[in-house]
Amino acid sequence: MKLKYILIGFVVLALLAGCAKPPVAEMDSAKEAVFRAESDEAAVLYGGGSLSRAKESLRRMQTEFDSKRYDAAKTHAAEAVTAAERAIADGKTGLARARSESENLIAGLKPSIEETERNINGARYNQLKLDFAQINRDFKNAKDAAEQAESDQAMGRYQNALEKGMSVRAALSSINQQIADAVPRKKS
Number of structural domains, the chain? Predict the structure, then answer.
């Protein structure tokens, strides 16, 4: 008699498992969350790892759904939502960090440009053996790039501002190094 009830229990469980409902609402939420993250410029730029995980979870969700493994599809849908939300949060954090870094870098360029200009004028006054035509071109290019970096900063293109600012800093450093190398060394 017990065996009969046990067999009936297994049959009922098998039927219930086979009748599991597709997690349509959860899948729609996952797709919407990933779409929001893909549409968020900061999330794409600064939350790429999390966004990739969200897309992968979405892909796995669909695979499990197509195989009628609805519990696994539901799990991957939840993972996709979590990863997409994380991508958006990472984007906000990355954007704030890039804004701060670019502001600091750009603020430091003006004094560096002024210092380099004084060094060029001093080198010219002291008649150091340098290619002043090339140095002037490099200096002008650095100043122009600094203006572009400022413009990018003002327009919220912080990553571009950072890249241009670092390029300006490297160019100014190179000019100053050329001047320093041309200074005659005193013999002791």
Answer: 2
Domain for residue 14, yes or no?
no
Q: Does the residue 56 lie in any domain?
A: yes
pLDDT band at 147 (very low <50, low <70, confident <90, very high): very high
Q: DSSP string of 30-45?
A: HHHHHHHHHH-HHHHH
Hey, is 47 helix, strand or coil? coil
Compute the distance between CA of residue 116 and CA of residue 114 in angstroms, rounded to an integer: 5
Write down the residue that tokens 């600012």 correspond to.
165
Helix axes 132-154, 70-125, angle to 10 degrees: 140
**44: nearest Cα among 95, 102, 103, 101:** 95
165-186 pLDDT tens trace: 999 999 999 999 999 999 887 7
pLDDT, tens only, 76-126: 999 999 999 999 999 999 999 999 999 999 999 999 999 999 999 999 999
Q: Which of 74, 93, 112 is the last residue of a domain?
A: 93
Cβ–Cβ under 8 Å, residues 79 and 34: no
Cβ-in-10-Å burial (0-12, 13-18, 19+) of 95 comes to buried
Provide the domain limits for residue 35. 21-93
pLDDT digits (tens, 9 = 90+) for 57-81: 999 999 999 999 999 999 999 999 9
Residues 166 and 105 in one domain: yes
On whether the CB atoms of residues 22 and 73 are closer than 8 A, the answer is yes
